[in-house]
Amino acid sequence: MDKFLTEAISEAKKGLAEGGIPIGSVIVHNSKILGKGHNRRIQKGSVVLHGEMDAFENAGRQPASVYRECILYTTLSPCPMCSGAILLYGIPKVVIGENETFLGDESLLKERGVEVIVADSPECKELMKQFIRNNPALWNEDIGK
Predict the structure, then answer these.
(1) Bridge-partner residues for 133, per DSSP?
(2) To 10 degrees, the CA torsion angle through 98, 115, 92, 25?
(3) Taking a C-beta distance cutoff of 8 angstroms, is the pair 27, 72 a contact?
(4) Residues 72 and 52: beta-carbon distance below 8 Å
(5) Known catalytic residue: 98?
(6) Which of 18, 52, 69, 106 does the annotation list as catalytic?
(7) Lowest CB count within 10 Å: 28, 37, 57, 59, which one?
């Protein structure tokens, strides 16, 4: 498995250990992690701190030219908000751990020229399946059911 997806999974596990939703993300520039994060919506009482958004926050202010050379790794298909941030900052490539549990706005990303790769990771799928089984109310709260 790709070492950066492995790092995103590690972030997802951190989030789970903190009592949050197990979704992690890393932003990579020139084979170095620029920012990493995990879903902290529950931990911080936040409506925006999804894994991808936390990774952007932790990457800090970067010139657009840097973001246009990055790859974003995420354990779960990005929601509309996170897909919007990917497009806003011009991230050209996204590697997704899995999209069976939740299918985000991959079609929009592809339409706008982002290369989308789905790794179909059994570990990512199992993390989410267990979380949803054990915490259906928290999961449904975040995805708007």
Answers:
(1) none
(2) 10
(3) yes
(4) yes
(5) no
(6) 52
(7) 57
